[in-house]
Amino acid sequence: GAVVSQHPSRVICKSGTSVKIECRSLDFQATTMFWYRQFPKKSLMLMATSNEGSKATYEQGVEKDKFLINHASLTLSTLTVTSAHPEDSSFYICSATTGATNYGYTFGSGTRLTVV
Amino acid sequence: KQEVTQIPAALSVPEGENLVLNCSFTDSAIYNLQWFRQDPGKGLTSLLLIQSSQREQTSGRLNASLDKSSGRSTLYIAASQPGDSATYLCAVNFNKFYFGSGTKLNVKP
After folding, report:
1. For residue A106, which residues of chain B lie inside 8 Å, CB to CB?
2. Does residue B39 contact residue A88 with C-beta atoms inside 8 Å?
3. Which residues of chain A are within 8 Å of residue B95 when distances are taken between CB atoms?
4. Residue B23 CB: number of other CB atoms within 10 A?
5. Are A110 and A91 in contact (CB under 8 A)?
6. What is the tens place of the pLDDT at every residue in B7-43?
7. Which residues of A touch B43 (CB under 8 A)?
8. A97 CA: distance to closest CA in chain B (Å)
């Protein structure tokens, strides 16, 4: 079945540094990838949608300069949290789809980011 | 804006009980709906995917139904086990997935 690999699973970084999270579709071509953020005891909030080869579309309220998304190939999307601050600490999850409307979404295992 | 609501927020049952988790959504123009399981600190595991043209899907002890016209889906878990304890999330595909807030299930031995 479809597999999405997300790395790293956990990362601790210092305030002011940048962190890159990778999302890879291992056995299918992901024309569209999504990035979600999950606050403690809350559901997943969609941050942005990325299509291969084009700029990401950000949801309202998400700072595009802080959360840089690149989808350079059909199997890889990256999320870079720039100049991270403690309030950016969260659980980030990516998902990928072929783009067909009848296709379910496959999710990565998530990245726990802690900014100290 | 599309909204997805799940009730109850939390549920604690003794082992062996059959139970129903509910999901409601505000717009019937959906592509499909997916139920997920999330264990603490972990990612999402897909349980069942129902296309908009389908009324239900079954996998083992799990059965999910979909009533698009009323904006509802239910996840039925038969003969619950302690290993079923997790948070169950409903996600509705309106060309993007929107998630409910989840139902935290605790199955007591």
Report:
1. 46
2. no
3. 101
4. 26
5. yes
6. 999 999 999 999 999 999 998 889 899 999 999 878 8
7. 6, 93, 107-110
8. 10
CA–CA separation, B83 and A3 (whole Å) = 23
Determine the distance in angstroms separating the CA of B63 from the nearest CA of chain A, rounded to an integer: 17
- Is the distance from CB of B52 to CB of B77 less than 8 angstroms? no
Contact B48, B35 (CB under 8 A): yes
Q: Does A37 contact chain B (CB < 8 Å)?
A: no
Are A37 and A108 spatial neighbours (Cβ–Cβ below 8 Å)? no
Rounded to an integer, what distance in angstroms lies between the CA atom of residue A7 and that of residue A33?
Answer: 15
Closest-CA residue to B80 (of B56, B65, B59, B61): B61
- Give residue A102's pLDDT: 59
